[in-house]
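Ticket #4471: structure output looks truncated?

Reporter: J.K.
Steps to reproduce: submitted the chain below (360 residues) through the standard prediction queue, then opened the result file.
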Amino acid sequence: MTRTLRGAIAVASTVALSMGVVATATGTSPGQAKQDIKIGLLLPESKTTRYEKFDRPYIEQKIKELAPDAQIDYYNAAESATTQQQQVNTALAKGDQVLILDAVDAKSIQSSVEKANKAGVKVVAYDRLAQGPVDAYVSYDNRKVGELQGRALLDALGDKAESGEIVMHNGSPTDPNAAEFKAGAHSVLDGKVKIGKEYDTPNWDPNNANQQMSGAISALGKDKIVGVYSANDGLAAGIATALKAAGMNVPLTGQDAQLDAIQRILLGTQTITVEKPYKPEADIAATMAVDLAEGKQLPDDLTPVTVTSGSGQKVPATLLTPVVVDKDNIKDTVVKDGLYTVDEICTPAYADACKEAGLE
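Returned output as attached by the reporter:
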């Protein structure tokens, strides 16, 4: 557990305790003190399994733990920046005091953030740093994610790094995290490998990645491609399908520790993924939101760093540390962290691979 995370969890505990003390001093119950809290939760899409399976329930659970009577208004933008802007308008009309916002498009959402700010509504940027007057931000060190991916790809290539070309599949150009993953990967890969083809992938769409990879194989020739950088596991799924169709199996990266990616790692059709444990990130976002809804200033332990958004705002933030997951540490990462049980991973199709990896 990182020092930042320990501090955040400690702060969350202190906040919960202090709420009770304040309520007692004013002669009201904790429930009464929090009954008027209204928080809007705006997530970007549902194709990536993390949002509905992990982020939403973890955030809602933590908010209810800290403020049992809080009203939570949930919205999913289904990859539409326009829809998300409309959802912000709806949240403001409902009287939400704080928005936890994971932006579809960090730039286009700026006008909505500014509108919220003018209305006195606080905005916690979640996972992606939206532009505009954001009040707080929690995510992972996204440049570090790209560095870890690039290093893992180089390690997997070994002596083959200079014998062919790699293909790079970056994320959506509207996602500021994608630019950081890309920059981190390039900082490791540039000068060490030849990049035959490189793509940005709109909406993080696996189908687009599949088409891009098929096009790269046709253009470069399958014998010249020695490895593939994929910015996340969704893209890796589409890429892996294209590689299999071409009869290829080369090192392939990913991110998000999706279940299908863990299973591909066991089979050897994906090399690594990067885990960003969802619960610590969700807990910190929920703690920030409850604090802000109660009119409190966020403590330094909860926002130990400052980041600069694409629109130039200085935003107090927490950046957590990502972890590489490979075939050798599945049990000590995603299983230990409670993302998946061994039974969920080791369905009959993966039984032999699980046994070989010590997942029993």
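Triage note (M.O.): checked the attachment and the full token line is present. The first strand starts at residue 38 and ends at 43.
Status: closed, working as intended.
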